[in-house]
Amino acid sequence: MSANCDIEFTLNGVKRQLSVPAGMSTLEMLRERLGLRGTKYACGEGECGACTILVDGLTLNSCLMFAVDCDGRELQTVEGVAASEVGARLRDAFVANGAVQCGFCTPGLMVQASHVIEHNPGAGAAEIRRGIEGNLCRCTGYKKIIEAIQAAEQKNG
Questions:
Q1: Most exposed: 18, 21, 69, 141, by fewest CB within 10 Å?
Q2: Is 1 exposed, middle or buried (0-12, 13-18, 19+ CB in 10 A)?
Q3: What is the structure's pLDDT at 109?
């Protein structure tokens, strides 16, 4: 049995303190300890992007990061993105453009898309494709997703 570690971090703008086992993943911490079920468990190997979150403003697969490594960091999940103005634009654009089918990849894509919009405003289709390339979608073929991200970006301002 691994020892617990006390960590402090900011999650979706709120300071948190938690005691976690040394081997627990950030994904497990978010879903099981904190009840944030928006971040999805899919491959568990960092290949699909369903568990993508922002850590200190960078996109990371939460299944590959130990919870203890969140200490002193700032995390944003799909719940945090959804509560933002960019998240609202993305949500509306995904629905309006038919970019959601089964929805399993959508949380990771929303996190990635918010990062693209924030760090590469006015990105073209090729840049958006590169910005979301870590997320696998088996339903849409990405065309509608890229159109939705462009539509959300155009509503900026």
A1: 141
A2: exposed
A3: 96
pLDDT of 54 reads 98
- The predicted pLDDT at position 1 comes to 54
Residues 53 and 29 in one domain: yes
Q: What is the pLDDT of residue 157?
A: 54
Residues of the chain whose pLDDT is less than 50?
Answer: none
The domain total for the chain is 2
Mark which of 55, 77, 99 sits at the end of a domain: 77
38: CATH:
3.10.20.30
